[in-house]
Amino acid sequence: MAHSLANSFSRRRVITAVIAGVGGSLAGCLSATPEGSSDLIFLNHNENPITIDVTVTNEAGEALVEKQLEVPVVKRNTEPNASIDDVFESDGQYTVSVNVTDGPSATEQLDITGTEDDSETHSVSIDGDEITFS
């Protein structure tokens, strides 16, 4: 009886440790983006690398970024393949245009509010003919 009580207690400790570890991992994923993170990250969910042209303009229509990027295939589901740092100079509305060479294009207006501590990151996912901003 004592042996089975010890095994039961030991199993509970293992299960509790696993649950605590999973909870801690999820909490890290759900927390705010760390200070100094990239402003824009690009995820390529296609089977082959792609080339994109990216343009970012501010509310006055001034181009802040006009850049061509090579975006390799995603190695893990959430790992960015390419990024652009220090795009958003102040809080406000920005227009981001992405054009995939020989593929789709999309434009999105983003409301940026985290420039004071440089903690806001937006992602652009490219999967087939679909470009999704988040």
Structure description:
This protein is 22% helix and 39% strand. The protein has 134 residues and is an alpha+beta fold. It has two domains: 1-31; 40-133, Immunoglobulin-like. β7 and β8 (130-133) form a beta hairpin. It is globular.
Helix content: 10-25%
Strand content: 35-45%
DSSP, total strands:
8
Low-confidence stretches: 8-35
Largest sheet: 4 strands, mixed
Known CATH architecture of the largest domain = Sandwich
How many structural domains in the coordinates? 2
Rg from C-alpha positions?
21 Å
Mean residue pLDDT? 77
CATH class call of the largest domain: Mainly Beta
Count of DSSP H/I helices: 1
Instruction: Name the quaternary structure.
Output: single chain
Shape: globular
- The structure class reads alpha+beta
The order of strands across the largest sheet is 4-1-7-8
Could you tell me how far the N terminus lies from the C terminus, measured between alpha carbons in angstroms?
Answer: 56 Å
Helix-strand pattern, N to C? HEEEEEEEE
Biased composition (Polar residues): 100-112
Region (Disordered): 100-134
